[in-house]
Amino acid sequence: MSKILVTGGAGFIGSNFIRYWLSRHPGDEMINLDKLTYAGNLENLKDAEGKPGYRFVLGDITNVDIVRDLVRQCDLIVHFAAESHVDRSIIDAGEFIKTNVVGTQLLLQAAKDFDKRMHHVSTDEVYGALSLETKKRFNEASPFNPTSPYAASKAASDHLVMAYHHTHGLSVTISNCSNNFGPYQFPEKFIPLAITNLLEGKKVPVYGDGLYVRDWLYVDDHCRAIDLILEKGQTGQTYCIGGMTKSVNNLAVIKKILKLLGQGEEMIEFVKDRPGHDRRYAVDWSRAKKELGYRPEHDFDEYLKQTVEWYQKNEPWWQNVKSGEYREYYQTQYGK
Ligand code: NAD
Ligand code: TYD
């Protein structure tokens, strides 16, 4: 039985991970440390609330006292908390440095001082962009070349994780995964933004020519990959985790969503491109396959359909998120 400190567990991937873990490891205990930023929403974890193995703590990973107190109580940290949206990092990168870099360092320091293991959840965006002209994919040996302030802050955090391993022998692992999709994703990210806009009768903004390629990973595949890393991963090792799509650009994704919702291409609105927009991401997950037995199991088309259906069935959830109503509720509840 383990006691796991999850940071950022009220966000998209963290909440899916907590749900995944509690169902597969019912004897374990989980503490969810989350600041409840705009992206953190306890509605994502209604089904975990009240379960004996689960506890929520409102707090910031840049608060050294909270971090040290909780790390001391746990066996293992699974670190999701981050500012995660590229467009926000282009507008203002300050919080990205505080949370993603300083917050990660405080967790590492506490893990070192109390001799705990830490798994750090990172992104394929640390490797920069691939061109459409090659078939190359990122792997663990790819050089870091982050292009957005978000990616740069995650790259800095990855370097710190490895530095604590090399210098102090801290037991760490990292996963660098591709773009996740699935239920409870905040509707500022491309897929949930597109679905919810269309459900509201609004057009979908497509940046630039729309020919940007992402390697879509269903969130449950990501959760399972982390589980495998915690079970079998080698300390000091990075694992690249990708999904089942071969190569699908944003326009193709939108056309699939339009078809699923029975709407036409007049709902696509080409808008000004994102500055410094990375053309293509693709991940080679062969190390994870060889060492951990990982392979993505969720077909993109099938789970895109399920994701669209989830947003159709859970309109109150995303309406609250879009209006910010859930924030007011939890701020009153937790006295923020
Ligand atoms: P998210 O934005 O949905 O959730 C982030 C969570 O972290 C929120 O609950 C937020 O309240 C919490 N948080 C933010 N700052 C905090 C702080 N200072 N202290 C405590 N909690 C804080 O993000 P996500 O999409 O679930 O991503 C989770 C992790 O996975 C991130 O580290 C991200 O970089 C990484 N990642 C995400 C994707 C993706 O496609 N979503 C892909 C690759 C890697
Ligand atoms: P996003 O979900 O922001 O993830 P990331 O930038 O981390 O890959 O964006 C996914 C892709 O969709 C990316 O190429 C940018 C594009 N995009 C749009 O075309 N329109 C939008 O409104 C958003 C949010 C993203």
Automatic annotation (TrEMBL):
Catalysed conversion reaction: dTDP-alpha-D-glucose = dTDP-4-dehydro-6-deoxy-alpha-D-glucose + H2O
UniProt-listed Enzyme Commission number(s): 4.2.1.46
Example of a GO biological process term: nucleotide-sugar metabolic process
Cofactor: NAD(+)
Residues of the NAD(P)-binding domain: 5-307
Pfam families assigned to the protein according to its UniProt record, in alphabetical order: GDP_Man_Dehyd (PF16363)
Keywords: Lyase, NAD
Single GO molecular function: dTDP-glucose 4,6-dehydratase activity
Gene3D superfamilies membership: NAD(P)-binding Rossmann-like Domain, UDP-galactose 4-epimerase, domain 1
InterPro entries referenced in this protein's UniProt entry, alphabetically: dTDP_Gluc_deHydtase (IPR005888), NAD(P)-bd_dom (IPR016040), NAD(P)-bd_dom_sf (IPR036291)
Family indicated by similarity: Belongs to the NAD(P)-dependent epimerase/dehydratase family. dTDP-glucose dehydratase subfamily.
Classification via NCBIfam families: dTDP_gluc_dehyt (TIGR01181)
Name of this protein: dTDP-glucose 4,6-dehydratase
Species this protein is from: Candidatus Buchananbacteria bacterium RIFCSPHIGHO2_02_FULL_56_16
